[in-house]
Amino acid sequence: MVAEALFEHIDVLGLRKATAHLTADIVRHGLAAALPEEVGTLVCGRGERSSADQHRPALLVINVCWSPSG
Q1: How many domains does the chain have?
Q2: Does the global pTM surpass 0.70?
């Protein structure tokens, strides 16, 4: 629910990169100015693994996109 209120859509570009597009409401209320341009978070994938080393979390970098609308 929180993600739906904040983001118009999120483009996931593999395990390590994503772009989050803020909603017009978030921009209009000024909340976008409080968010950083880039956020990093640790994620764990699921599925087949070829070695135990791949069970470590990966850093997912999320670019936060917004443009003020008038």
Answers
A1: 1
A2: no
